[in-house]
Amino acid sequence: MGKLVKQFMENFEEVFGRAPIEERKELVKKFVHEIIVDRETNVVRFYIRRIPPLTRTLENLLIEEKKTYTR
């Protein structure tokens, strides 16, 4: 599984760059847990999800990849 995580992270920028805006939003939602904008101090804080929640996503990608090769 670690190999898939590494591959997913290495290809993220490329995949994100090619994705339509709606897919980009979904990709960001998989990583970003919360965004807080403080307009008074002009500070933006964002909280990134830990890797374990991505495990399901990566498993789904692996399943889809296997389906592609078995068709």
Report on this structure.
The protein has helices spanning 2-18, 21-31, 51-70, and strands at residues 32-38, 43-48. It is of the alpha+beta class. It has one domain (2-70). The model has no long low-confidence stretch (mean pLDDT 78).
Give a short summary of the structure:
The chain is built from 3 helices and 2 strands; from the N terminus they run ααββα. It is an alpha+beta fold and 71 residues long.
Placed side by side, the strands forming the largest sheet appear as: 1-2
- The total of beta strands comes to 2
The helix content is 55-70%
Q: What general form does the structure show? A: elongated
List the helices and strands and how they pair.
Blueprint: H1 2-18, H2 21-31, E1 32-38, E2 43-48, H3 51-70
Antiparallel strand pairs: 1-2
Primary descriptors:
single chain; 71 residues; alpha+beta; two-stranded antiparallel sheet; 2 strands; 68% helix
